[in-house]
Structures are given as structure tokens and as C-alpha cells.
Request: fold
Amino acid sequence: MTASAVLIGRSAALLRQDEAAAALECAEEALDEIRASFVPEKASEISALCACADAFAALGQAEKSLSSATEACTLSKNLGDELVQASSLLTLAKVHLLADKDAVVALAVLRERGVTLGEMALILSLAQNGKANRSQVEEARRKENRWHEAFLLLSVSLASLPKAGPAAVAVAEFLRAAKQLGLVDGGSYEPGSSIRRLYECGGSAQEMYELARCRDAAKKSGDRQRAGWALLDIASAKLSQKPSCQVAEADEALTIFSSLGLKSCVAAAQLEVSRSRLGLRPVEALQAAQASALAFKELHSVSGESAAQSASALAHLALGQVPEAIASASAAEENARKGGLRRNTAEALLTASSCHLAAGEQGRALQDALEAAAILREVGDSRGEAFALLFEVASAYMAKMEGDLALKVASAGLRLLRSAEDLLGEALALKATANIHIERGDTEPALRLLQEVITICHDTGNVLDEVEGHAAVARIRLSRNEAEEAESSAQAGLALAKEAGNKLAEARALLCLSKALALKDLPKAAETADAAAVLFKTLGDRQGHLQALRASCVAGCQQGAAGAAAAAVKAEQVIKEMTASDLQAAGEAHLEASHALVLAARADQASKSASAALTIFRQLGHTKAEAMALRSLAHADRARGRPEEAAKAIVEIVSLFKRRGDVQGQANATGELAKAYLEGGLPKEALSEVGEARLLFQRLGKATSKEGMLLIDVGIPAHMALDDPPKAVALAEEAVNIFRSLANRLGEAQAFQASVKVCVQKGDLNSALQVARQSCAVLARARLTREEAEAHHVTAKVHLVRLEPREAVASAAQALTLLRRPGDEKSRVDVLETASWAHSMAAEPEGAVGAADEAVAICRRIGDRRRLVTSLQTLAEAQLVKATFRKAMDTVTEALALCRQADFEPRFEAHLLQASSLAKLGIAERDPQAPSRQKHVKEALQEAKAAARVLCRCGDRRAEAEAYWCLAKANLEAGNVDSAAEDSVKAFKSYATLRDGSGAGWAALLLASTCLRSKGRQQSAEVSHLVQEEITIPDVKQALDAVLNAHSTFRRINDEEGQEAALQLLAEIRATRDGAMQGLPQDMPRPRPLPAAFSTPPPSQAVSEYRVLVGARYPPCRTGFILAKPALLDLEDIEPSSENKPALLQKAAKPDAEPALKETAPRSALASLDNWDKRFDRKVWHNVKATTSGLWEYPDMGQPEQNVHSAEFVNSWLEELLAPEHLKDE
Reply:
């Protein structure tokens, strides 16, 4: 826009503000600038002259005004532009009309309202043929209806003008030019109705009363044409209040005008019919809009044709035909611009904005919406500008993920409506602003705004909107898991509707109440939904009837088999009822029945219903519904266990959009097909479709967020499924670049988080942590609180995988500080579980139990039973760490009962069984003399076996090792020593293959305990001769071998608790050996005494009960990551001997460690197996064996030596014996 054009626009705005002097200054400056240019532009010069004439006229300088207008007309005749010529002729006509006082007042009013060229042509055309008197003028003035006042004053003025006078001649010339442009079509219009349409009746109670009075008066007088126009006005008012609602007045008016044969009136009625049928019958809406456009074109009515083309665009959009919608909107805009119809241009731009937004072109949509708002501001339509800002502009900003800007423009629109004291508009603005807050997750401001809406609707007597306000509050309460408050809001709306006797409002309130009741009383929720369905059916509201049916079926299916069967019966009944009405209703009924039947586990019937809906919608040509039917068919086929048929249905969606030439739709459908292939376990086919979809996106000429999301949702997981991390990382980087080019920070963060999963799966944990932190930084800059909290949660999970529990706790704490708003409860539960796992891993029982307790309390409060099971598992594990075994047992019992009622995977239940088994073993070990000990041990063994059956087949070596540990522990407590020894060796072998030193050490200690519980039998002639009986003496040699290996392992990985446990077991070996020797005769041969290192008192430092109970078991935390497969040590050739000797402790060998394994925490590496040849060569191990050999040899008869030394000597002896400088094979 040039500087002169800006000055001319400013001049017009100043005139509307009654600042004529400033307007004249701007107009003259523009004129001087144009004339000073090297090649003056004649059209701009004429516009500047017209602006000068208007300013002179406002200042009362008639001669100068006439001079400027005359010069503009002269220049326009030579230019040959009909639109510019019509504009100059209008200026000349207005100058001549200034001689009449009534015309002066009327023109001032219209100038204040920002009347445009087309509107002025319509008003003058109606005023020229109209009949008005002073009493009508006074009535309009009393009602403060300025548009009608101006029209009536012009009617009085034109009637008083001489027919051959300059003013009448100028008006006639202007109307002639306007007719050539199509601004005036000469149709039979009712003046009052036509003027009313200029300012768009808002549908207030007073306005509706006036319209109803006009309709009744026309019917009483027998004026059918006037009655038809009154009906159209009522329809228009209702549609302005509730877009796309079904209004009977439009159809009635069309019938009247068709019987009268008034072509122009029929075209106008068809336009209203199209608007009224847009929501429920878009096919009929399109037909009516196209017929209206054709009729207006034949009548040469540019404004009517443009409006009808905009209606056609909206109908195409409702049918899912986006390219046709964009073409119709573009044609409407072009026609409106050619005719100089600024309001029609703004309407077409708003329609085009919606179409471009549906096509994923957010930038173009925002540009069109802003231009439309600017045009409406220029013409002084503050209400239209406010709605453009509230809906189209704000929607475009939200699509661009710029919520702050969306709130700013919404606030600007709200201020405009409040300044105009438009209460109905203010209520709509408040609703729109509340919706923006809801999309951003800010429910508190949304609730405040909705309370304002309820107050306004109550003050204006708008019961339906007040009930809907209560329903909106209830929905927010449900999203915040506040079931009681949601039910209270729904009940308030229901009571209000019943009191007012509004059946439609009552039906909607019942539907809302059923959704609120579904959280706690499913039978009552289904009953309430059925009552709503009956009301909707009585009122003929098909859409509401289907929504109530869905709510009833969902509630019924959640009640079990009986409820599902009842839901299926309801679905079939609805099909029978609606099939007789029309095809659209029948198709929608079949579609809804398909959803209900899938929920009721009747996939075959669901597939048939979806196929029937598909046939109907194809017959209607309803593209969007046809695609929905194909998706329902695919869903039903997946439920039937036929993924190939489901993929074929989605292929048909791709073909549908391809036939229509809808590249955007084809690309989106191809992405759906790729996702279906990935879910069906076909990653190669999925990648092929991803490539096809990307080529289609490239044909659109610009990057879109949908392409980036396709890479995140399908491309990256497919590459990871094919075990190709480099290509997955490359796709993640491409996704990041796409979102960066679109300035979409949320998408960029999601791409980073996808990259985190890839890095974890390939074992690059350092990169995973770095990328996770990048995601947090991006979201912090975007001020997306909930998403930033999720990013911190992902970082905490990465720390858990890296075995960094304290860092995980810190990241989880950051996430919790961001999740403080109502509605964040579910996310808060997830983070609290992660924090509890981290505390458990760090052996911080108080923090673990506290976080898990809070998570359980939230789940109980919000009624989320599935999350309650996972939170109970987390709490049980924390209670195990705290060694409150009875509480842990009770918690796991509750979790198991709930788990078996829900659809959890077997591995999850196995972990619960393992926790239950450990809790009962802990109770048994703590109180060996308790009467219930045997019961607990027996149950623990059964649960350990059940858990092992699942965990040993899941392909996770660590889970397998932990299962064997638990099973060995249970067998040992039950007295099954041989089974315990076998399972402990299996546990050691599994831990050894993982290079887990801690696990191998604890498994060795468990093996030593089994050796102590077994008895070595000896019998010889000498012994029998002396004591005349078989003698059983504990065999501690194998136990000693295992303890030695465990202690050395714990020492090398700096596990002090493990070292102390090993020393305690050494003390137990000494006590066991000494106790066995006490009863022998003095002349009985006995073993040599233990070396001084083992003749020590028990260690003073206690080992935690939890560690003794679980060994090296990790809490089974859920990170959501697919972890890298560890490089396993090959020990297949090593098997324990028949005497259960720990041969694995002596013969293990391993390849070089992987780099990823070297980066993990020391506890995860098996130090006693790393560099085995350097640390445990044959000579050193021979020395160890020599030290402990001969214990069972028989020396001379006599008392054994007394060797008592301190525990410090044990450590020094082992350090000296196993020091690296001594480990040489010479």
C-alpha cells in the first residue's frame, strides 16, 4: 500500500470521527503527493479528489466540495474505469444532496457508520422508490436505529427533490453506473428488510420481538412478499446468533417467494437456506448456495453472487472438499473487489481464511483474516471486526501455536463489543476467549470468563446460552477431574432449563449431566443419556440424538457384557428409526452405530454398519463423511483382527482424495496409511508411505507441521523398528528443521523428544540427556508450561536410565513445580511415580513413600483406576525399600485385585507378584517364629514361580536374573535347598552375562547361603568305630569360595554394603563351623581351624533389610523408552558342577566391553569379570584355594589353634591378596 493510499484511508477514518479539518489535511497531502510524482496515477488522484470533496462537505464548504467532485468526475470519464467512475459520481451526488437538510443529517449518519459504495447504492435505490414520512423518522430515532433513520431521511429528501434538479440527476447517474457494475439488480426487495441486513441484526430479544411483530403484521395484511422478507430476517437473526443451526423460517420464506415467482427474492431465500442447512445437511446447503449464485449472476447482482459464492465455499468445506472451497472463496473475493463491495470482500476473505486454515496454510489464513478485519475497521463495522478478530484471526494464531497473540486479539475484539454495549456479542466473545484459554490449558481464567457468560445470559433472559454456559463449566470441571463440581454445574443447568420450560436446553443439560455421572455411576449415566436422546428425538435434533446415543453406549459398554449388549441393541434401533427419514440421517446413524458396536465388541456388525454408511455417503457425494466411514470401517476391521482389510480401507481414502485432486488430503491420508502399516508391524511399508506422503507435501510448495508430525509419529519409530538408529536420528533432525522454519516451538520440542527415544534405544545416553535438555529450553522460551513439565519429566526418565537417581529427582521436582494448575493431576501422578522410582533407586525410602502416597491420593480423588494400579505398584516398591513389608503386602494385594479387573499386560502383573513375594519373604525373615510364617513362605514361593514363568520368557535378561533371585530366595526360605542352589546359580549366570557386578555378587552370597543350609555327609571306618553313627558336618568350603568372590567383586565396584554383607556371611560360616564341632569327642578327627582372617567377630555395620531381601534388583520403573540391548557375556559353555560348586566364579571370560557399557554407573559393570585375565589369573586363584584348602584334612589329634583377629584384618588380607600388582601369572 502506497503512502498516498494510507493518507486517503486515514482521511476517511478521521471523517467518521468528526475530525473534518484533519481529514482534509490528509486528503490534500495525498493529492499533492500524487500530483508531484513523475507519472501521476489517475485512479489514486480521483480517490484523493473524492476524499477532499467529502472533507469540504463535512466542513460546510459547498463550492470547494463541488469543484473537487466535478474534477473527479471529469477525470474518471477519461480513465474508463467503471468502478472509479461510479465512486466519483457518488461523491458528486452527495455534494448536490447537501442542499437538503434531511439529506445532510442522513449522510452524516451513514458516514459515521462507514457506509461503503455498494451499501450506498442499495440505500439510494431503495430510498428513490420508498415512501416515508416524518412519523416514521421519529420512530426510528426513538428506537436509536440509525440505519433506518438515515434511510427514511433520504427517502423524504429524494421525494422532495425536483426531478430535473442537479441532485436528482446526479443520483440517477450514480444508480445507472451502479447497476452496470451489478451493485443494484432491480429486484423486488422489501426496504426495511434490506436495510436491516446492512447492519446484521444480532438476534437480541428486542430485535426478535420486532421482527416477529413485522411478520405477524404482514401476514395479517395479506402481504405475502413482506411476510417472506420478515421470515428471512428472523432466519438471518437466528443464524447470526447460532451459525449453522436449522431454522424453519428460511424454508418457509423460500416457499412463499417461489409461489410468487419473485426471482430475486427466491435467490435471497436460497442463500439463507444454505446457511441454515450447513451444519446438518451440507449437501443440500451446497445445492442451495449454487442455485442462489446462479440466480444472482443472472440478475447481475455482484453482492448477491459474492455472498452466495462464499456460502458455497463454506458448504464445500463442510463436505471436506477443500480445493473447491478455496476456489469458491477466491471467486467471491474477486467479484467483491471488482464491484468495490468492501463488506462482501471482508466476508469472502474470512471464508477464505477458514478454507486455508483447513488446508494447513496458517500463514495465508492469518493474512486473509487480518485483511478482513482491517477492511471492517475501515468501513466502521466494529461488530464485524470484533468477530473477525475473535474467530478467524485468533484461530489462525492458535494454529500457529502463538497463544499469547491469540489472546491479545481476542481481548481487542472483546473491548470493541463492550464499547458498543453489545451484550450478545460480548457473551460470544467471552466464550471464544475462554476456548483459547482452554486450548492453552489455563482452566482458571476460562472458568471466570464462563461465569461472566452465564451472568450476561441470565440478565438478557437467554436460557439456552445460559444452560450451555453451565455445560461448558461442567466440561472444564471434568477435564480437571472434579466430578462433584462437574455434576453440580450440570444439575444447575438442568434445573434452569426445567424452570424455563426449554426442552432443547433440558436435553443438552441432560447430555452434559450423563458425561459427568459417567465417572462414578455408570448405570445412572446411561439412563440420563437415554432421557436426553428421547428429548432430542422429540425435538427433531438429529445431531443431539446421535451424541446422546454415543454417551449412552459408552456408559453401557463400560458396565460389562450386559451393558455392551444393551448398547448394541440401541445402535440397531437408531438405524431403524433414522433410515426412514433421509439419506444423510441414515448415513450418520450407520456411522454412529458402527462406533457403538465396536465398543460393544461386535466388530462384524460394526463393519457392516460402516459399509452401509460408506455406500450412502458415496451416493450423496459427501467427501468428508465418506472418509469418516472408511476410517470407521478400518477401525472395525482392526477390531475383527484383519489389519490387511483395514489398510485397504485407508488406501481407499487416499484414492478418494487423489480423484478429487486434493493434494493436502491425499498427503494426510497417506500419512494415516503409513501409521496403519506401522501399527500392523510392517515398518518397511510404513516408510514407503512416509516417503510418498513427503513427496505430496513437497508438491504443496511449503513445509507444514503435519509433515513434521508424520516424521515423529511414523518415520522415526519405523526406522527404530528396523534397528536403523542413524536414519532415525536424521529424520529427527529434519523434523526439527521443519518446525524451526515454521517457528513452531512445540513441534521442535516434540522432535527433540523423539530424538531422545532414539538415542536411548541405541545406547547413546549422553546425547539423549543433551537433547532432552534442549527440549526443555525450547519450551521454556515458548512459555508452554504443561509441555515444559513433560520435557522435564522426559529428562528425569533419561536420568533414571543413566542410573542417576538424584538427578532424576531434581528434574522431576522441576516438572512438579510447573504442574500446579487444576487439570494437571494425571500428569502430576506420572511425574510423582517417576520421582518415587528415583527415590527408591537412591535408597531414600521416605521420599519414595511420600511421592507414591501423593500419587495414590490423587488417583483416588480423580477416580483414575488405571493410574491407581501403577501408583499402588510404585508405593509398594517404596514400602519395600522402607522395609515396611506388611504395608507393602497390603498395597500389592490391592494393586493385584485392580490389575486383574483391567487390561494390563502379563509382565506388569508379574512384577506385582514378584513384589508381593518379596514382601512376604521379608515378613517371614523378620519373624521366623511367627505362626503365619509357613503360610507367607508358601504363598511367596507360589507367586515367585508365577512371576518367573512370565519374566523368564519376556526376553529381558535383567528381569530373568531378578526372577531367578526371587525364586531362589523363596525356595531357600521354604527349605528347598537344592532348588534354591540351582536358581541362585542361574541368577548368577544371568547377572554375569549382563556384566552386573552387584547382581553377581549378591547372587554369589545367596549361593553361599544355600551351601550353608546343605549338609556334607562323611563316614569312615575310624569315625564309625569311635562314635558308632553317621556324622554330618557342615560343608563350608563351597560357601567360602562364593563369599570370597562376592567380597572381591563388591570391593572393586565400591559397594560397601555388599562388602559388609559378605563379611557377615563369613562370620556366619565361622559360627556354623564352630557349632558343628562342639558335639564331637575329643579324640575325633576334626578340620583345621579357619585362617586368622575368618576368625573374626561379626561386622559392626548393619546391612539394610531391603538389600538383603532383594539383592541387586532394580525397581521396575516405567520410563516408556525402548532400552538398548546389552552386549551379553557368552557363558553357555560354563555350567555348575553336580555338587553345585560355583564354577562360574572361576571360569568366566568375556569380550571387550561396549563403549555404552563403559559409560554406565560402576554398579552396572561386573568388576570381577572385567579384564578377568589381569585380575584373576590362575596362580592367584590357586593361592586363594591353597589358603582355604585342607580345612577338612585330619592332622594330629589335639585342640585346634585359637586364631582370633579383627575385621580390619579381613579387609587388609583381601586387599593384599587381590592387589593388582600381585596378579601376575609367573
Notes: Residues 1056-1077 form the longest helix (22 residues). Residues 1087 and 1193 are 6 Å apart (CA to CA). DSSP finds 60 helices and two strands in the chain.
